[in-house]
Amino acid sequence: MEVYPLLFKPILKDRIWGGTKLKTKLNKEIPTQTTGESWEISTVPGDISVVANGIYKSTNLNELIEKYPEEILGKKIHKEFGLDFPLLFKFLDAKDDLSIQLHPNDELAKKRHNSFGKTEMWYVMQADENAKLIVGFKQKSSPEEYLKHLNNKTLVSILDEIPVKKGDVFFLETGTIHAIGAGVVIAEIQQTSDITYRIYDFDRKDINGNTRELHVDLALEAINYEVIESKKEYSEIPNKSNLAVKCPYFTTNVIPLNGKYNKIKNDDAFVVYMCTEGEFSIQYHHHKFDFQKGDTILLPSILTEFQLIGEANLLEITIE
């Protein structure tokens, strides 16, 4: 395999709540004024990422993994997931509030949808003044209380609204009710799954006067009614991998890059870098690749020694 950092063509999604910040903040060539999501690396059926650079340009990620499974995924990941790429990476621009929703766990998702569950995390890249997220219940709830408030359109009153700022990190286990509020740009890392149970959409209608589908019955069994501490604190030591989230599905570090960071790793798993600020390069064996804010880079697992050089803020994601 020809080894180099892989960039992919963004898969851009129009959303009722989307805006234009994916272009103005992250240099994405958005097709509409309501572009809400840029899927950066995906193998969700129907949305398979295509390589945008180098010798494998125009090859899709599934084809590449089929040809070079251990080289890309890593020995451990290939053994565990076969030819499946287990994570999905996105940038989101919420001009308006997203629906209140949740995701099922692996067991429910497998039984109902033959899919992975959807554990995910958010890194706040930009937040307007007074921007908020909804994450979980204020106090321990129950199916009965939840349904009463849902039917009375007072659900938000029992949910935890959290003010947010740039750099905040949230870890969302499956079953956690959540919503991204208006005025927030987020980097999202999650299991490869597109299963969402939407439970309340503020009675919004699309341009055709239709409301979006809700999944109230499916959600009942999937909701975690406990109070959850979802916000994660982390260090910001320059030129170091600072742990932000560690779970069975992914580990995410924050790297405030200010100069040079030498990286040596094993070949068990791939690494992904999401550049949330600044510019940087990846260098190895006299090769140099330049990247900027808004880029999401997949480093094949067999690239085990390299340097990160520049002035940037990076999310470093792998599976341990």
Write the layout of secondary structure elements.
Elements: E1 11-19, H1 21-24, E2 35-41, E3 43-44, E4 47-48, H2 61-67, H3 69-73, H4 75-81, E5 87-94, E6 100-102, H5 106-113, E7 120-127, E8 132-137, H6 143-151, E9 159-163, E10 169-172, E11 178-180, E12 184-191, E13 197-200, H7 216-222, E14 231-232, E15 242-246, E16 251-264, E17 271-284, E18 287-292, E19 296-299, E20 305-318
Characteristic key phrases:
320 residues, mainly beta, Jelly Rolls, 2 domains, seven-stranded antiparallel β-sheet, 20 strands
Briefly characterize the structure:
The protein is mainly β and 320 residues long. Helix content is 15%, strand content 40%.
Describe the structure.
The model has no long low-confidence stretch (mean pLDDT 96). This protein starts with 10 loop residues before the first strand and ends with a strand. It is mostly beta strands and 320 residues long. 15% of the residues lie in helices and 40% in strands. The chain contains seven helices and 20 strands. The protein folds into two domains: 222 residues, Jelly Rolls (Sandwich); 77 residues, Jelly Rolls (Sandwich). The strands form five sheets. The chain has a seven-stranded antiparallel β-sheet, with no helix packed on it. Strands 15, 16, 17, 18, 19 and 20 form a six-stranded antiparallel β-sheet that branches. It has a three-stranded antiparallel β-sheet with strand order 9-8-11, with no helix packed on it. The radius of gyration is 20 Å and the shape is globular. One of its GO terms (biological process) is carbohydrate metabolic process. InterPro entries: Carb_Metab_Reg_Kinase/Isom, Man6P_isomerase_Firm_short, MPI_cupin_dom, PMI_typeI_cat, RmlC-like_jellyroll, RmlC_Cupin_sf. Keywords: Isomerase, Metal-binding, Zinc. GO terms for molecular function: mannose-6-phosphate isomerase activity; zinc ion binding.
